[in-house]
From TrEMBL:
Transmembrane segments: none annotated. This is DJ-1/PfpI domain-containing protein. The lineage of its organism: Bacteria, Bacillati, Cyanobacteriota, Cyanophyceae, Nostocales. Residues 106-199 form the DJ-1/PfpI domain. GO terms for molecular function: ubiquitin-protein transferase activity. Signal peptide: none annotated. Gene3D superfamilies: 3.40.50.880, Ankyrin repeat-containing domain. Keywords: ANK repeat, Repeat. Pfam families: Ank_2, DJ-1_PfpI. The keyword Repeat applies.
Length: 573
């Protein structure tokens, strides 16, 4: 997405009394940053302007005023890329209608309230993106046909009314739900993602072909699309779900890169095409493939695009959240910060993204939100921008949680300090002996106390932990190595003896990173005593690491003749 993807677009915001100031300010600032013109509109009762006041539910809350000079009855809906019903009770006030004198009030009159008619007309035009935040969907309940079957999320206060109108309530951890041309948000606190999602839907609507006539034929007739893989890339870029489905059924390779080094999945993820991304993943698109130019993954593209639902899909299919791109070394989190995507930043942080990873120029996420414009698109100073303030808040909150989580690891701290007495005390108190340390970007990320004690050779602590039921089969976060790997790597034969005696250690497990067994690690680090303990335990001798070598072949390669002889003697028995 360019710096101003909404340039030339108009966004209409329906407001009334009891608006939320922070919400309206975010619309005005963010949409303007993206190049759009924001029009605040309401029913003006034949006046040139009206002053509306903000929500005053909270004691001591300052009242804000909002001047509106556009009456929605005078606008052409076709001029607007999106129309948004603001949060809180503005929608209730806009449903006001005049009762004809001498006639009883009935539901049909509510259907013809001017604002209800206006928003219902927008709902009928699929080229216009509609947004409703918090209580906003109340504007449509007098016309239930506009909500029937639509997937939505809303505040719990209006939930019963929305369901009774026929909408399909769709819970979402992000607080935002997309149903084609309708974007809904749970509360005013979700406004950042709400705006980003509406932006993506506007872009998608713009890219949709206005007329589709035999799309496969159109694509394959073009010289550049005579190969099915190139036709797939073109269809994905056009968000042509029908053509993509047909091409997938024909057996096209969904992982083939195009001329720009990108796979179809990377294109869909970057453009923010949620359903397209989901369809490609179902067809076998590989989340681990990186572009052949700079080494970025589909998750990097999703982070740049800012659509949280796509990042969620990719992570659900195994994408690596902290993967660094090959050339610049950015993580998806760094890209999300760089691209000014607060909602994506929050999501990635909530999923465990590490905040202090440095890229190739030794910059972390903090460098992209500082007081210098060097790292930000447009030369803006993040600390003076709403998006920058939001991102800093999210990062600082995460940093605070990380520090608190580390302090809460009392058993781990005792192990790190080789404090046997405290270890015994905590075990007696019933502490979880297999509790893993938080992933915060340190060398002890995702470790159990037993893993750390085994690596450091704290034999007495290892014994206490095993006796207390510590699991010797749990691997670590960084290498998926188990306690026996750790002990062998660090040449701690006595720890290996304890693990062997325990009987549950997986001595022949091969590490995910290099395929080494515990014996491989012992040979690699030339620990004759550890090798002997493992040979006495009858470990496998014929398993090969990812380098194709057995422990014996590794010993020979490194010139460890004594260790090689020990293994040969064992093999001859």
């Amino acid at each position: 997405m360019g710096d101003m993807p909404l340039k030339g677009k108009k966004i209409g915001i329906l407001v009334e009394n009891e608006f939320i100031p922070e919400e309206i300010q975010h619309y005005q600032q963010r949409f303007t940053e993206l190049g759009a013109t924001v029009h605040l509109m309401s029913r003006l009762w034949d006046k040139k302007t009206l002053q509306f006041i903000s929500d005053v539910d909270e004691i001591g809350k300052r009242i804000h005023q909002l001047e509106v000079s556009i009456d929605f009855k005078n606008v052409n809906l076709k001029d607007y890329a999106a129309v948004i019903m603001a949060a809180n009770y503005t929608s209730v006030r806009l449903r006001h209608f005049e009762t004809p004198k001498g006639k009883p009030i009935n539901p049909e009159q509510a259907r013809h309230a001017p604002a209800v008619e206006f928003f219902a007309k927008a709902m009928a035009d699929r080229s216009i993106i509609k947004g409703a935040l918090c209580h906003g969907l109340w504007i449509l309940t007098p016309r239930p046909e506009t909500l029937k079957g639509r997937k939505v999320i809303c505040h719990e206060v209006v939930l019963a009314d929305i369901i009774n109108a026929g909408a399909v309530y769709t819970p979402s951890s992000t607080g935002v739900v997309v149903d084609d041309d309708l974007v809904t948000g749970r509360s005013g606190k979700d406004v950042a993602l709400f705006v980003d999602t509406i932006t993506q839907q506007i872009i998608e609507t713009k890219r949709q072909p206005s007329v589709v006539v035999n799309p496969i034929k159109q694509l394959t007739m073009k010289k550049e699309c005579q190969q099915p893989e190139l036709a797939l890339l073109a269809a994905v870029e056009a968000n042509d779900l029908v053509t993509v489905s047909d091409l997938i059924k024909s057996g096209v390779n969904v992982n083939k890169r195009g001329p720009l080094h990108l796979t179809p999945l990377m294109i869909a993820a970057g453009y923010g095409y949620v359903q397209m991304t989901e369809n490609l993943l179902k067809a076998g698109a590989d989340v681990h493939v990186v572009d052949s130019s700079l080494g970025a993954s589909a998750l990097h593209k999703a982070a740049q695009g800012g659509v949280v639902d796509i990042a969620r899909l990719l992570l659900q299919h195994g994408a690596l959240i902290n993967l660094q791109s090959a050339m610049i070394g950015n993580t998806p989190l760094i890209d999300a910060v760089w691209a000014k995507k607060p909602a994506m930043v929050k999501f990635l942080l909530d999923q465990g993204a590490i905040i202090d990873i440095q890229n190739r120029v030794k910059a972390t996420v903090w460098d992209f939100i500082g007081d210098k414009p060097n790292w930000t698109a447009g030369g803006t100073i993040p600390e003076k921008e709403n998006w920058g303030k939001l991102i800093r808040t999210y990062l600082e909150e995460r940093e605070k949680r990380d520090k608190a989580a580390v302090k809460e690891q009392r058993l781990m701290l005792a192990v790190l300090n080789n404090d046997l007495a405290t270890v015994k005390t905590l075990i007696a108190e019933g502490v979880d002996v297999d509790e893993k340390s938080p992933v915060v970007g340190s060398g002890d990320d995702g470790q159990t106390p037993l893993l750390v004690a085994s690596f450091k050779g704290y034999t007495l602590i290892v014994r206490e932990l095993l006796n207390a039921g510590a699991n010797p089969r749990i691997g670590d976060y960084l290498m998926k190595a188990n306690p026996a790997h750790k002990a062998a790597f660090s040449r701690h034969a006595e720890v290996i003896k304890l693990l062997v005696e325990h009987g549950q250690a997986e001595l022949d497990a091969q590490g995910a990173y290099n395929g080494y067994t515990v014996l491989h690690d012992a040979v690699w680090h030339r620990s004759k005593e550890t090798v002997q303990v493992l040979l006495d335990a009858n470990v496998a001798l014929d398993l090969r690491g990812h380098n194709g070598k057995t422990p014996l072949e590794m010993a020979i390669t490194y010139g460890y003749s004594e260790i090689a002889e020990l293994i040969r003697e064992k093999m001859s028995e």
